[in-house]
Amino acid sequence: MISRIDLRGDALPEGPALRDLLPRADFDVQAALEKVRPICEEVHHRGDAALIDFAERFDGVRLESVRVPAQALADALAGLDADVRAALEESIRRARLVHRAQRRTAHTTQVVPGGAVTEKWVPVERVGLYAPGGRSVYPSSVIMNAVPAQEAGVESIALASPPQADFGGLPHPTILAACALLGVDEVYAAGGATAVAMFAYGTESCPPANMVTGPGNIWVAAAKRYFTGRIGIDTEAGPTEIAILADDTADPAHVAADLISQAEHDPLAAAVLVTDSPDLADAVEKELEPQVAATKHVDDRIRPALAGRQSAIVLVDGVEEGLKVVDAYGAEHLEIQTADATAVADRVRNAGAIFIGPWAPVSLGDYAAGSNHVLPTGGCACHSSGLSVQSFLRGIHIVDYTKDALAEVAHHVVTLAEAEDLPAHGAAVKARFGWKVPESK
């Protein structure tokens, strides 16, 4: 059901050579880019009419309006199962606790007497959030996108999710109910690249946004790449990933269950176990078969995901070598199930989120840990972070110098300007002192 990669015996290679040995899904955003380009431009030129036509083409429903009526949000919340509502409310509460603590405040540095630089943090003015609606329903993604944007102070928040033929062309009612719980009342029935294009260009019903965030399929990722530079994005999210670093102290039933939990997302989902214990590897393989057989989405998602080239059990000589492997892999979700897991986790450099020990499965982070589940994939954790309040803030430096403070450093400014052959830069300083550079004190 799942392949093995044996990296025992020889010294592990460094950098790209090690990354090339590790499993990864095929996810060619560049190829998809050429297919989404005409879709995005159609939305640019035809606005809502294009969105309506694409909804009929891709989602099998003819919309009367792209904007979701306020009554539909209210109705969705009123019809929400009480237990689901309680779970969503607790997820929101915990997410707010964590993200509220990420807020930044302005800080002033007194560089010299009379010379100060203040860094203030300003939220983007308007963001478009995306909640997928393909194989599964993701109200949790509504929470993970909306809460940090709200805690950052974003004033204008809109959300798009694909129209569903089963619900009269509206997004899934649980998505709408989550929006209502969060107070997000600007919602659009638009999916994939068309939703990103709607936010990037704006249409008759939807003003353009400064930024688009949220997970999605390859078409969403390609559209984000297409609009990079015009709008800000969080990340080009690829197929979801779990890596588990485990030794012989791990419970094989837990490990197998956690691998399966990510495999059920998508046939391209990656499930990777890195271990120095052949006995654990054998036990996990034995656990997989009955656990997979007992769950849902087996043939269309879980088996293809576990059997795919993106999933494997990777055998290493020890936890030290395992750390090198998981750092090279840079997993979206990394579980540490080893002896002294906290100390081991502290040494990890590259991961979207780290889950320590047997009682912190990835599914906890997906819903109710308080952490964010919009995380970098495809090895991007080596240079990128997950979604947070900071994602929606811009740092602006405010420079405030007196005449004396400028005079004290003027000769350095002029010297560097001349060294760069930019004499007008120096002249802008000289002009303030009668074209004579003050002598340094």
Provide the descriptors you would attach to this structure in a database record.
alpha/beta; 441 residues; 17 helices; 14 strands; 6-stranded parallel beta sheet; 5-stranded parallel beta sheet
A few lines on this structure:
With 441 residues, the protein is of the alpha/beta class.
Overview of the molecule:
The protein is α/β, with parallel strands linked by helices. The chain is 44% helix and 17% strand. The chain has helices at 15-19, 29-46, 48-59, 70-78, 82-100, 139-152, 173-182, 192-201, 218-227, 252-263, 278-293, 298-307, 319-329, 341-346, 362-367, 403-419, 423-430; strands at 3-6, 107-112, 115-123, 126-130, 156-161, 187-189, 211-213, 232-233, 241-246, 270-275, 312-315, 331-337, 351-356, 393-401. The strands form three sheets. Strands 1-11-10-9-12-13 form a six-stranded parallel beta sheet, with helices on both faces. It has a five-stranded parallel beta sheet with strand order 6-5-4-7-8, sandwiched between helices. Helix 16 packs antiparallel against helix 17 (423-430). It is globular and about 85 Å long. The termini are far apart.
